[in-house]
Specification:
Number of helices: 3
Strand content: under 5%
Structural class: mainly alpha
Radius of gyration: 22 Å
Order of helices and strands: HHH
Number of strands: 0
Length: 98
Amino acid sequence: MAITSAIVLFAVVWFMTFFIVLPLRLETQGDIGEVVPGTHKSAPSGAVVGRKARITTYFAVPIWAFLAFIILSGWISVRDLDWFDRMATPASVQNTSN
């Protein structure tokens, strides 16, 4: 895995985790009872995005490390995901009898 692939994998894992963490313990303006004029009752009452980003990072790093380990160890490769046999057989596996 190249450094670019590792960064892209981390970004994907981080944002997927962020979208899971974002609605947890959400307090809406309707729950608090202080609705700002021009906003909906379901709008968040306090912006705690920084705290949620930190929590997301704490969860995303081990998930990314696990996925990177699986990919780098070779347990799962691109050829394992080729369910329709569209990829050519690698040269090391092909029969080279003349």
